[in-house]
Amino acid sequence: MTTINSLVEIIKAAKANKFRCFGIRTLADEIAPLSVGDDVPDSYNWDWEEDCSCRETTKETLNGACAIEVLAEWEMDDEEIAESIRNALEMSEAYEGHQKYLIGTRYGQEEYGNDPGEIIIQWAEVIAIV
Q: Considering the chain, what percentage of its residues have pLDDT values greater than 90?
């Protein structure tokens, strides 16, 4: 299992490698596992009429992969980044599935989703398996 301290170091290395936003992504158990370096598939939108994922209905996707945001600004110290990771991991427990990944993007943009702490990361990549 990846420790919080090792995730902080991974984020710092990723930032030096031009990654600019991060999140903890949870995938349902029936989805094939991802590896470090894999592109993260865009998330499905929510079908409000049917109250379920569009994966089950229209197949409509969002403009990126949903995750719980991990703040890692340049002015933040290691303990602040670690606290953000702990908070994101705790919040990610609300989602179905046991596969957890630290994801980020070099090129894409981010926007915010409907859930508390949710970020949608365009062109996301797996940075670490949590």
A: 78
